[in-house]
Amino acid sequence: TQVVLRQAWLENIKPVLVINKIDRLIVELKLTSLEAYTHLQKILEQINAVTGTLFASKVLEERAEKVKEEVDRDKDLGGGQVYDWSTGLEEADDSHLYFSPEQGNVVFASAIDGWGFSIQDFAYIYSQRMGIRIELLLKTLWGDFYINTKTKRIMKGAQAKEKKPLFVQLVLDNIWSLYDAVVIRRDRLKVEKVVTSLGIKVMTRDLRHSDPKILLYGICSQWLPVSSAVLSMVCEKLPSPLEVSAERVEKLMSIGTHRFDSLPKKTQELKTAFLQCSSGTNAPVIIFVSKMFAVDTKALPQNRQR
């Protein structure tokens, strides 16, 4: 994760975060929903700490260059200048760089079981079900907030009052109970109730399948499809491909030590199509290979034994 974050930072790519394999917290580590919430909080803190370090080093480098320029200029002018030795970190705004569920740039997922969601998905569900304003839920679904059942108000200070945080009560508890019914206890009656309450249809063969993971995938992929959650986050939080700079296009098209102007003429002409990002029938299809794997020749389709 650190390597990928550093690479994204160096290439000036805006990242979004998918925290995957949450099913393992339930089935393998057997954490409670509250323990899992604490674990997820720590993961977010650690990832944001890496981002903070990268940002701080960038600010300090820029500040050091500025001070050096001031010193060199003062030497040329004959001295007598007063230098500002502050780091520049105090004034720099880094709030937009961090991963935060309430900002919508984090998805929680179990890709193997077909589910994934952002805070926005549950905020929409509960605003309709409970009549709470969606703006309020977006601010309180992640963090130290709880529902006061007597006053029916969302309050701060869940940890101090030993209350379940909203994220645990309204989100994780539902997922935990689903796994409990389908995978752990295999309670068919409870599964039927869950399916009915979610308003989804599961195929009969999935309900009768000996592997509970098949049934779980059939429910989750309809209830909280991971593909929808990730695609929505990409569309809402990442910049449009039409905003890509010409310099970045040239960098993507240049492999290794090859400079853009050393590429074949026909390849250089693709830059225009790259910038236009057109889906027209006459526009060329451009494929960017980001990773290659070594495969044994025997495993290639044409070499497999029938």
TrEMBL record:
Q: Which InterPro entries match?
A: P-loop_NTPase, T_Tr_GTP-bd_dom
Q: Which residues form a coiled coil?
A: none
Recorded hits in SUPFAM superfamilies, A to Z, give: P-loop containing nucleoside triphosphate hydrolases
Q: What is this protein called?
A: Elongation factor-like GTPase 1
Tr-type G domain: from which residue to which, for each copy? 1-128
Concerning Pfam families, the annotation shows: GTP_EFTU (PF00009)
